[in-house]
Design goal:
Elements (H helix, E strand, L loop, with lengths): L8 E2 L9 E2 L2 H8 L3 H4 L9 E2 H7 L5 H9 L6 E4 L6 E5 L1 H10 E3 H8 L3 H10 L6 E2 L2 E2 L3 E3 H7 L2 H4 L6
Antiparallel strand pairs: 1-2, 3-5, 4-5, 6-9, 7-8
Amino acid sequence: IRDGGLPVGRRAGNHGFHAIVVPIARIEAFSEASPDELSPRSDLLGSLSVSGFGRSIGLRDTGDLVSLVEAGHTPALPVVSPSTGRNRYRFRPADIAAFHDRFVTLTSLSAATNLHRNTLKTRLLAFGVTPFTHGECSDGTVYLRTEAFSALAPSATGQRDVE
C-alpha cells in the first residue's frame, strides 16, 4: 500500500478502518500467486538480525556491529527492508563463524574461560589489549581474537588454557 503497488480507496459513509477498500481483482491476483513468490527467501533461513546476533554475543548497541559490517571487517547479508527501503543486515551461520574466527567479546570470552567479564576486562587491559578500533570508531567490547587469547594464554596469566 505504501509504495503504491496496491491502490486504496475510501468507502463513503464509513469511518476508520471500515472505510478502507481495495480492488478485489488485486486481492484475487495476490491469492493466486505461486508459493515461491510468497515464501520467505531461502538465503535468509537460519539467519539472525544484527540485534539478535549482537545480543547473543553481549553487544547491546547494534551500531557497533553495523559499523564492523559496513567497514568490511565482518561479513553479513544486506537485505532491503520492505517498510523503509533501507539496507538491514542479516548474519547467516557462515557470517557468524567468520565473526568468531576474527573477533571475541567479553561475553564470548567469559563463556570460553568461565571467568567473570570484569576479570577478563582487567586482564586484557593489564596486557595492553584494547577493544578493536577502525578509523575513529571503537566497537565497544569487541576484541581481536588473536590478541585476546594471546594475553589470556597460560604463560601470560599463570592460569589454565582458555581455548
